[in-house]
Each structure stands twice: as C-alpha cells, then as structure tokens.
Amino acid sequence: MTKINVRVACALSLLLLARAAQAHTGVHPAGLEGGLLHPLLGPDHLLAMVCVGVVSMQLGGSSVWRVPAAFVLAMIVGGATGMARPGAGFAEAGIAISLVALGSAIVFRQRMPHALVMACVGVFGFCHGYAHGVEIPQAASPWLYTVGFVTSTTLLHVCGVGLGWLGARGRTQAMALRAGGLAVGVMGLAYLGGFAGLAA
What we know:
InterPro entries: HupE_UreJ. Keywords: Membrane, Signal, Transmembrane, Transmembrane helix. By secondary structure, the chain is mainly alpha-helical. The protein has one domain (2-199). Helices cover 84% and strands 0% of the residues.
C-alpha cells in the first residue's frame, strides 16, 4: 500500500511538472496556478524540496513528517514576509546554502540532533518562502498563491520521502541516491560561487 501511495504522489508531481513545462511561455499565471508552478519552475526550489523529503526519510521515525512540516510552516511565514517586505537579497544565498546542506546530508547520512535539523530546515524553508513571496505575480490573490506553492511543496516532499524509501531498498539504490545528493550539493556550491562573484 505504501509503495502504491508513493507512486501516486510522484505521478501527481510529474503531472504538475508537465503542466509547468507547458506554461513556461513567458506568461506568468496568477493565483492558485502561479503558486503551484513557482516551486516547479526553478530547479533550486524543486531539488531542495525533494531533498527535504529524502533527508526526513533517512532520519526516520517522526522526522518523516516533522521535518517537512517545519519546512512548510517556515515557508508560509517567509512567503508572507516576502509579499509584505520585498527586496532583501539574503534569500537567494540561503537557498543556495540549503542545496549544499541538504545534498551533503544525503551523501553522508550523518545523524544530527533533531532540534538542529528542524532549525536548519526552518531557516531554509523561510528563505524559499521569501523568494516565493517576493515573486508573487501582480494582481494575484496572496491566499490562493500561498495555497498553490504549499501544495506543490508538499507533493515534492512526498516524492522525496518516496525516493528516500527506495534508496534504502538496496546498495545500488543507495549509491544512486547519494550521487543525486552530491549533484545537488555541487549545484548549490555553483550558485554560491555566483553570488560571491557578484559581491566581489
């Protein structure tokens, strides 16, 4: 039953990705659709959210739902902050750091204190939410937009949990999952290098 649920959730997310590809034509949809698409159109958002699900599954126990929940709650706060006070440049650097940290956690699978993981994920969620809020389309309903990006994020977390579950099924799957984590971490470092170059 669990395997079926994971497949269904991943299929739904893939449908959202296909819809995003169709909509990526220069038109920025507002409201619910805009919120649904925003986490999917940026690989930094998409990969970080999937990684949160993977890490939560690797930690096991109640972390499987608590870690993604912490991310989503902080993301909502960050989204509201970004809508009200746009302009701060910290969010993009925070998003890049989240890729490095989450990718490294998948590669090394280091057991860290639960409180530390929750705090880090909360900070990362706030940064991603802030970016969502700042980029809300004009005339969009903030409530519908928020429901949209929360829904997409939750589905991506579920897909990450599914990947984490598959990664524990065998040595080959575990190695593939770690390779993916390494790729995400390298992408984060590349983003950070870009920010450092701009600041120099």
